Every structure is written in structure tokens, then in C-alpha cells.
Amino acid sequence: MYSEKVMDHFSNPRNVGEIENADGVGQVGNAKCGDIMKMYLKIENDMIVDVKFKTFGCGAAVATSSMATEMVLGKTVEEALQITNKAVAEALDGLPPAKMHCSNLAEEALRAAIQDYYKKNGIPFDGEPVCSGCCHDCSVVHE
């Protein structure tokens, strides 16, 4: 079953919504599997000063999105890139094995938003490119 923290973040998600004119926006997921996450970042002087998300999916998807936003708020972009799906799941006191993919989506949405921020600012992105979900074949990476 779900931990109290998962239930709290599902019932009372933090940082839900959109940021108009966001510095970075990342969307990941697949409508076929049912989970889609979109993350918005506002960045000033390399610090994440605001973060919002919109998630279409199960309770675990909402909870992992909410927790990931809490984890990156106030962090530098570089610190945010170090946040892993395992760290998100641990911050929620664990997820059932069948729901671990939700923490992967939270990490990927964050990385996609940072990748977008880098691209908009002409900063080389040294990490793994994130699939945008545009063709529903995540074995293909798009620029």
C-alpha cells in the first residue's frame, strides 16, 4: 500500500499549476499508459525560484510530481539535475514496485524542463536527452 506521505501529496499536492513564461518546460509520459507529467521552472541566477506541475495519471504520479517540486524549489539547476527517481521515491517513504515508474516520470519531467531551459539559453546540455513523448516511441530521442 501507499505511505502516509504518498497519500498526503496525492490528497494535498504542492505546486500544482502552470508558470506563464516559464524558463523551462518539460513534458514526459505517454497517453497510452495513462501518465503524463508537465513541469514548469522559473529560474533566476541559476536558482529554481518557482516550480509548478500538471499531471494526468494515478495517485502515485501526482504524489511523485508534487514531491519532486518540493525537492527542487530553492535549489540550483545543477543540484536539481542530481535528483533521482530513487530519491523521489525515498522522500515519499517508498512506492509499491508497480508504481516506481511514476518516480521515473517525475525525474524525467524535471530533466526535460532543465533541458528546455538550457536550450532556450544556448547552454550545452551534457546529460542524457529526455524523450519528449511526441511519437510515443521512447527508444527514439528527438532534439
Descriptive notes:
The protein is α+β, with helices and mostly antiparallel strands. The chain has a single domain (4-120), classed as Sufe protein. Chain: A (Alpha-Beta Complex). The chain has 5 helices and 3 strands, in the order αβββαααα. It has helices spanning 4-11, 59-72, 77-81, 85-91, 100-120; strands at residues 24-30, 35-44, 47-56. A hairpin with a 4-residue loop joins β1 (24-30) and β2 (35-44). α1 (4-11) crosses α2 (59-72) and α4 (85-91) crosses α5 (100-120). The radius of gyration is 14 Å and the shape is globular.
Count of the separate structural domains: 1
Share of β-strand residues = 15-25%
N-to-C terminal Cα separation, in Å?
A: 39 Å
Number of helices: 5
Helicity range? 25-40%
Number of strands: 3
User: What is the 3D shape?
Assistant: globular
Q: Order of strands across the biggest sheet?
A: 1-2-3
Low-confidence stretches: 134-143
* CATH architecture tag: Alpha-Beta Complex
Encode the helix/strand succession as letters: HEEEHHHH
Main sheet summary = 3 strands, antiparallel
What is the level 1 CATH name? Alpha Beta
